[in-house]
Specification:
It is built from 14 helices and 16 strands. The protein is an alpha+beta fold and about 450 residues long. It has 3 domains: about 170 residues, no CATH class; about 110 residues, Jelly Rolls; about 130 residues, Jelly Rolls.
């Protein structure tokens, strides 16, 4: 049996006995799942995900006292491992059993909040991985009450061992978003998350669908996959999905849906059975209403992620040295447009340059007073460059097809930008001339009417 994954933030996972236990649970094989998960605890009682899974099975079987003991141990073990999501997952189970979790919430927020003595930028190497080369699940002869009693005994022994061990100072790296919050704000934020378990192959997020949830990987591994745009003709091969990123323990994903209601730009698929935390927009909005500093930090975090994506993908920024891109984009302002809003108005001078961060816009021309679609643009594209670079009024409307977020550089800052980064001006000039020629050609020949998807307001 290969080495099991540690429950540490950022760690990749490999096939393990716990993967088998999770898969059996999701398949409805509860006794078989318990044999595997309890055996993991028996051999390596410091693995919080194994404690949580074992106690969930015990709770479902009515062994509430043992489950409570194990979940509380799981909270402490997850904090020791620097895994905030797993600690929150254990709290979700405790709350379902009617246990008062206020003390545990205080412990988690104190360990991971801004200024916590547990946080360090120079944490030492992680503990060695547990080895399961000779792992065996509990005997298949153990069934029913006998199996539950054995699992209960394993949990009790693990708890006694922890209580009898000397307390060690646990240091771990700050977590994005969470460790930027003070204790009370962090506590309010983590209370908004619920726990779910997903099987391998599950599409947690589907490209093109609207979403209102953000997720954290408590334990598992997922891939971010994107299918490129459809081919221009039926004779061209259908594009294959591209893997953009791999998400492991502690990763936060899907949070851009909190800033924009645009369709998801990519799918996220579980590579193995995974434990996730999920928070919905309405829950986080309620937290932000009570704790404004949480809303401010959420918005700042989303903007940082948005900027990081644009820095990697925007054709305008590709000519800027990579070390300068993040500083450059910080000069841009975030703007949010609802479906149908005009980003740029035909016949008027544009107020600046827009980098599309999420969503989609349509370039709208007019023929005999009737609007029609010239083209559509998405994340990473630029609008407003034709009027700015060619120094004239806009020759088409730019309308948000979906709720869209852009990074906007005001006109007055544009000249300073190109003076400091002349390569951008060349890139924008080429882009502006090509787009202007395309727009002029379409305006001269098109008889296409606008569809209902592009409603002007």
């Amino acid at each position: 049996m290969p080495t099991a994954p540690p429950d540490l933030p950022g760690s990749s996972t490999t096939d393990s006995p716990l993967d088998r236990a999770l898969a059996l649970l999701l398949a409805g094989e509860r006794e078989a799942s318990l044999r595997w998960s309890a055996a993991v605890v028996e051999q390596e009682d410091a693995v919080p995900s194994a404690l949580i899974l074992t106690c969930r099975l015990l709770a479902d079987a009515g062994r509430t006292e043992a489950a409570t003991e194990g979940f509380e141990l799981g909270v402490r073990r997850a904090i020791d491992a620097g895994n905030l999501p797993l600690a929150v997952a254990a709290i979700a189970d405790l709350r379902a059993l009617g246990v008062d979790v206020n003390g545990h919430l205080d412990d988690i927020s104190a360990a991971f909040c801004a200024g916590s003595p547990n946080l360090t930028e120079t944490a030492g190497p992680p503990p060695p991985l547990p080895s399961f080369e000779k792992f065996q699940p509990l005997s298949s002869f153990l069934t029913g009450p006998a199996l539950l009693s054995k699992a209960t005994q394993i949990i009790h022994q693990a708890s006694q061992k922890y209580e009898g061990s000397a307390a060690a100072e646990m240091l771990f790296a700050p977590l994005p978003l969470f460790s930027a919050l003070e204790k009370d704000g962090l506590r309010a934020l983590i209370e908004a998350f619920e726990m779910i378990t997903v099987p391998a192959g599950k599409e947690v997020i589907v490209q093109g669908e609207e979403g209102a949830e953000a997720y954290i990987v408590a334990r598992g591994e997922l891939e971010v996959r994107r299918v490129p745009d459809e081919p221009a003709s039926e004779t061209e091969p259908r594009p294959q999905p591209m893997t953009l990123a791999r998400l492991t323990n502690g990763a936060l994903f899907g949070e851009m849906a909190l800033l924009s209601r645009a369709p998801r730009a990519a799918s996220v698929v579980a590579c193995r059975p995974s434990i996730l935390l999920v928070a919905r927009r309405e829950g986080l909005e309620a937290v932000a209403e009570k704790r404004p500093e949480v809303g401010v930090e959420l918005a700042a975090h989303c903007r940082r992620r948005m900027v990081a994506n644009l820095v990697r993908t925007s054709p305008v920024l590709i000519n800027v040295p990579s070390a300068e891109r993040m500083v450059l984009v910080e000069h841009f302002e975030t703007r949010v447009f609802e479906k149908g809003d005009k980003v740029i108005v035909e016949g008027l001078e544009t107020d600046g340059l827009h980098l599309i961060a999420s969503g989609e816009v349509a370039i709208i021309g007019h023929e005999s007073g009737e609007p029609f679609v010239i083209s559509t643009l998405g994340a990473g594209d630029v609008v407003g460059e034709v009027a700015l670079v060619l120094r004239r009024k806009a020759n088409a409307d730019v309308v948000a097809v979906h709720p869209t977020v852009t990074l906007h550089l005001p006109r007055e800052d544009f000249m300073r930008l190109v003076r400091e980064h002349p390569a951008i001006l060349l890139s924008l000039y080429v882009m502006a001339v090509e787009r202007d020629e395309e727009t002029t050609s379409v305006l001269a020949t098109s008889t296409t009417s606008i569809t209902e998807d592009y409603v002007l307001v």
